[in-house]
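step=encode ok
step=design start
structure_in=
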């Protein structure tokens, strides 16, 4: 994170687990967002879309779900659907109509000062709504990367924007385990290295600049990848770390009150959980934008998630500019010196590359 956040704010992130930017969106925009999302179909829940042919995520739902998924996919899919509709009244992914408006206000208030890295991708957004009967995600977890996003790192940052007040009285606050309290964190960048190792050796997977194009990888190669030993070790590592945190660090999570419209930055790859919503008069409403730092991995961003274009916005943190593209942000056009190093010493062997 020290290469991504400005030094001035690094300590706050490290100690508290998040950065309170002290930037607040206008009430007008917050209300406009609420009106829009409340007008969308009731009970819409986009989460189960992540589980189509996604052994990876199913495994993370617990070993039993993973086994079920492999042997009785229809039953497991139903189970997962129920799990998410029990958690939220509404979960809308990649709507993206407010991202530009939000950044207009953010950059005007110098939001780019929080970053050291020159570029950051505003990947997609998420809206979550739950009443006191829907518990949201109260279990501790870390949001691990999956094939739908394909490109995620251990240092992704999330703009966390409550659309209603999150307080002791209302509940619904975010609990975070700060890195200062525990170094247990999922080594998400390993996955990008594994992608390079598995897919870079096959020319059919590459674009004209030598970048892996996720959409070009065929089904069989994906399947072979999900059986890869290191990949499974990474998933196992996730489970072990989650168990360790649940056992030894539950008292180290921090929770804070945040007002509606208050912009917070947090890393969804650290361990976190949502507090139960207690207010019976109205629902908890949360909005998030996933921000991706750019690494020198030869991996191209995916262009479609849940049938919608995404990964099309780039923030120039030096100039404080919001750039919009018709295609996913093209990493081959970003100068190498403006990218973060995935690893200083990583050299996948030719043999390993060929061995998909
Ligand atoms: Fe999460």
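sequence_out=
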């Amino acid at each position: 994170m020290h290469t991504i956040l400005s030094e001035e704010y690094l300590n706050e992130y490290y100690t508290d687990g998040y950065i309170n930017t002290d930037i607040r969106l206008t009430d007008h925009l917050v209300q406009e967002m609420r009106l829009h999302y409340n007008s969308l179909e009731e009970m819409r829940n986009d989460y189960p879309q992540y589980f189509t042919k996604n052994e990876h995520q199913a495994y993370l739902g617990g070993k039993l779900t993973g086994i079920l998924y492999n042997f009785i996919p229809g039953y497991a899919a139903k189970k997962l659907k129920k799990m998410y509709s029990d958690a939220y009244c509404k979960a809308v992914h990649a709507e993206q109509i407010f991202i530009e408006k939000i950044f207009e206000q953010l950059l005007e208030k110098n939001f780019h000062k929080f970053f050291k890295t020159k570029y950051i991708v505003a990947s997609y957004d998420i809206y979550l709504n739950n009443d006191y009967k829907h518990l949201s995600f109260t279990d501790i977890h870390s949001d691990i990367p999956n094939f739908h996003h394909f490109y995620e790192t251990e240092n992704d940052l999330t703009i966390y924007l409550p659309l209603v007040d999150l307080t002791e009285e209302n509940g619904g606050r975010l609990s975070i385990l700060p890195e200062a309290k525990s170094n247990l964190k999922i080594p998400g960048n390993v996955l990008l290295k594994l992608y390079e190792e598995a897919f870079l050796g096959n020319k059919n997977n590459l674009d004209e600049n030598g970048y892996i194009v996720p959409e070009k990888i065929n089904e069989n190669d994906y399947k072979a990848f999900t059986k890869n030993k290191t990949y499974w070790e990474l998933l196992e590592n996730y489970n072990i770390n989650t168990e360790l945190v649940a056992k030894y660090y539950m008292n180290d999570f921090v929770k804070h009150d945040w007002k509606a419209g208050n912009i917070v930055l947090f890393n969804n790859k650290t361990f976190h959980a949502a507090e139960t919503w207690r207010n019976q008069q109205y629902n908890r409403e949360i909005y998030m934008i996933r921000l991706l730092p750019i690494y020198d991995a030869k991996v191209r961003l995916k262009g479609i998630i849940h049938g919608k274009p995404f990964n099309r916005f780039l923030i120039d943190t030096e100039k404080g500019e919001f750039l919009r593209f018709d295609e996913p942000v093209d990493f081959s056009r970003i100068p190498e010196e403006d990218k973060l190093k995935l690893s200083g010493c990583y050299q996948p062997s030719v043999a390993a590359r060929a061995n998909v």
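step=design ok
step=annotate ok -> The chain has two domains: 7-41+93-354, 46-87.
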